[in-house]
Amino acid sequence: MIALIIVGVIVLLLIVFVIGSYNSLVNLRNKVKDQWSQIDVLLKRRNDLIPNLVETVKGYATHEKETLDEVISARNSAVSAKTPGEEIKSANMLTDALNHLFAVAENYPDLKANTNFLDLQNNLKETEDKIAYARQFYNDSVLVYKNKLEMFPSNIVASIFNFKPEEFFEATEAEKETPQVKF
Hints:
The chain has helices at residues 2-60, 65-80, 84-105, 109-113, 115-150, 154-160, 173-176. It has 183 residues and is mainly alpha-helical. Helix 1 packs antiparallel against helix 2 (65-80) and helix 1 (2-60) runs parallel beside helix 3 (84-105). It is rod-shaped. This is LemA family protein. It comes from Candidatus Coprosoma intestinipullorum. It holds the Pfam family LemA. It is a single-pass membrane protein.
């Protein structure tokens, strides 16, 4: 009789552990998805600002077609991305293209003084700052989730219920390079 009670308590504790671990994993996975959706909203905002910026620059920098095409191509790639991995890659390409565009804009004093351009540039800068913060929160959420997936004993529950790790939002090689400052 006592052995049956002990076995029952152990089974009950095991069930409580599995339920708690499962719910914790679901909570963390949903937090990662929520953080990704925050980034997605900001990326879409940035994608909506870019056509206006390109049109403004076109009027001043007519012989910078290659740079403008690079921005447009990167934006189209970002808009058509289907998976978070594709969105991460295309968002990084778009950031590089925008940085190149702003570097080119430095050669056009009239463009730099254009209020529409300045307003668009400020909006993009604010959006880029928000994206950077959102990436940080997303990566923090991915880290907590991955730790839970890999740490014992919750890794057993994760493998039983087929929880999959998420990707970090990582900087491109171009973003990791030290910028050249020349006077």
